[in-house]
Amino acid sequence: MMRLLAPVALVAAVACADEEGMTSEQISAQLAQNLPNGTSAQAVVDYINENDLSSDGPVNLESLRPVKDAPQTSDLLAIVRDVRKSALVSTAVQMRFVFDDEQKLIETSVREINTGL
Amino acid sequence: MSGIEGSTGANQSVGAAAYAAQARAHANGTSGMHSNGPGGPGQAVANFADLSPVEQGRALAALDAQTGDPQRSNALALDPAGQPAHAAAAHETCTVEVRYTPVALGANHAFIVTTDADSQTYFRGGPAANNEGLNSSSGSSSGDAVSQDFDPEFGIYGPIVTEYGDYRPGTVDWTTDPSGQQTVDEFAGNCDEVDASLAGTMDAIEDARINYMPLHQNSNSTVREGLERAGYPDVDPVVWAPAWNTQLNTN
């Protein structure tokens, strides 16, 4: 029964109002202002945790992974989920921080990723 | 282009070609149950046979040390048919899974996770936009937001975009509590071949710019398409995954 009614409910849900949260532009601006290139990995980790920028729980230095094809660098991912939600799709903002061999920040990128059915 | 890494940094681009190259590089003895691609049994033997006698001896000694079972290296040395070559990878297992996260009203979003000794990789699809055509910002770097103009060819969700890469915290589908999880296959060897196939399908789907339609062609259709092309055509989702059976035309 649920499976019969659910598609109707899903179609109806498409018309629901969006929920709005932080935008990728806001997060980008925040990171650019507070985490310039040269920032230490530990400072980046602290900033992410202190500002709730990781929906997957606190990050730490062990979260850094070597970058494929660039063994002298490592990266750290953080994601803020559900910054925007429509009825059937939610948007997350993913941040990627790349560090050099001294664990100094050399690149920051931010992007939105959508998840739906 | 697809891939978390591919979208955000050239250094981490993990395209189908890269996976295929990896698969070829690791072809020796890694075919497991999948013998139709690079790395089939014949290839494994040919590579072993290409080694010099000294190199063969070293390889066999290393195999002994790794497995603790000299019978395996003996069999490899003695059997020209090469089946024992799989012994080298017998301790490694590739697991192909579909996992799900809830979306709304009991409906779920599916994605694929492959796991072997060296890596855990995800493959997924989703809408390019969220209820606003292609006006949403899809990527930015250090405050330089990039916006795409609305494309009337597509609806409010834009086309299906795909990605794949290391499955780890911070990736879009990361969860320790999926709403569903099923093992599609488990076989001896690594996941290189199946990863290459899945990556190729993800690229093809994105390149085809297929309109994302939540109830008709979506992330679940993307997963089913990837599985089918990787040799798993009869997978039934363990939870409700709308549009699972939709065929995605990438021609």
What does this structure look like?
The complex is a heterodimer of chains A (117) and B (251). By secondary structure, chain A is of the alpha+beta class. Helices cover 28% and strands 36% of the residues of chain A. Chain A is globular and about 45 Å long. With 251 residues, chain B is α+β, with helices and mostly antiparallel strands. Chain B has seven helices and seven strands. The longest helix of chain B has 16 residues, at 192-207.
Pick out its properties:
heterodimer, A: 117 residues, alpha+beta, 5-stranded antiparallel β-sheet, B: 251 residues, two-stranded antiparallel sheet, 7 strands, 22% strand, disordered N terminus
Write the layout of secondary structure elements.
The complex is a heterodimer of chains A (117) and B (251).
Chain A: H1 2-13, E1 19-20, H2 24-34, H3 41-50, E2 65-67, E3 70-85, E4 90-99, E5 105-115
Antiparallel strand pairs in A: 1-3, 2-3, 3-4, 4-5
Chain B: H1 4-8, H2 16-25, H3 41-50, H4 53-67, H5 70-78, E1 93-104, E2 107-115, E3 120-127, E4 137-141, E5 144-147, E6 160-166, E7 180-188, H6 192-207, H7 219-229
Antiparallel strand pairs in B: 1-2, 1-7, 2-3, 3-6, 4-5
Helix pairs in contact in B: 2-6, 4-5, 6-7
Total count of helical runs of at least 4 residues of chain B: 7
Q: Outline the low-pLDDT stretches of chain A.
A: none
User: With helices defined by DSSP (H or I, 4 residues minimum), what is the helix count of chain A?
Assistant: 3
Distance between the termini of chain A: 20 Å
The most extensive interface between chains reads:
A-B, 57 and 53 residues
- Give the topology string of chain A: H per helix, E per strand: HEHHEEEE
Per DSSP E runs of 2 or more residues, the count of β-strands of chain B stands at: 7
Q: Helix- and strand-based class of chain A?
A: alpha+beta
Question: In what range is the share of β-strand residues of chain B?
Answer: 15-25%
Molecular shape of chain B: globular
